[in-house]
Predict the 3D structure of the following.
Amino acid sequence: MKTPELFKEYIWLVNTIHQAGSISLTEINEKWLQTDMSKGVEMARSTFNRHRAAIEDIFGINIDCKRRGGYRYYIGNDDVLREDTIQNWMLSTLSVSNVVFESLSLQDRILLETIPAAGTILKTVVEAMQKNICTIIKYKKYGTGTIKEVKIEPYCIKLYHQRWYVLAHLPNDEFRVYSFDRIQDISITEEPFAIPKNFNASEYFLESFGIVKDDTIPLERVVIRTFGKERYYMSDLPMHHSQKMISQGDGYADFELFLRPTLDFMGHLLSRSSQIKVLHPQWLIDKVRQMLEETVNRYNE
């Protein structure tokens, strides 16, 4: 069987088991026979076991079995399928790719967003992270013609709003985030570095809205009121992992978030300004109001 066909089966199998919670091989085959991939032939137990092993090897996803209750299969480490993990991103991306590839006749009716190619930079940074060795980057900030050369220790990479970023630890013990699309050149050194055992990439950005981390801004309980359809959009696509609805009324809903309200978060609030209102804290209300007034003044000039 060709590799692309196998990958389709792996993705289908993980999604089927994950959605079911726990499922027997008989139930898997009932669903399997409803797909075009099966060609009317059940998935043999030997094939199923080979797929299990390949899925663990490629994606790091464990398909375990509960023997009590009739040998039911489940994702043993389903925490790796939470929204912001690389496994979930890979599965989602491959699933979408499969759907699009099988629908080439509709290519003029399927419109996608362009993500700037990371190419050599992504490959080089990942290689440096695997080997824990420093890299030299030549970086050009927006609004300047100067290219600065910096030696960095690449701690992690993050995809955010269609752009790749690297979290870099610098020789002066500071952390800085660099966007791939502003890196002019990159090279690997032979100088090793060690990541502290207590460093966790997800926890580093836990209190951030996006890629901006500013510990001078206090962690806040932010309450946002949404109006009309925006309340549904915000429920379906939360602004932050800490978000939860705390109340609702006639035509509105209030959401609570715990984060550091950095400039990128305020920019997101402004982009939805006609549909939302900040209720707490007061300093954030004042800041957003000021930014809105400055916007109106520009239109009045």
About this structure: The first strand starts at residue 23 and ends at 24.
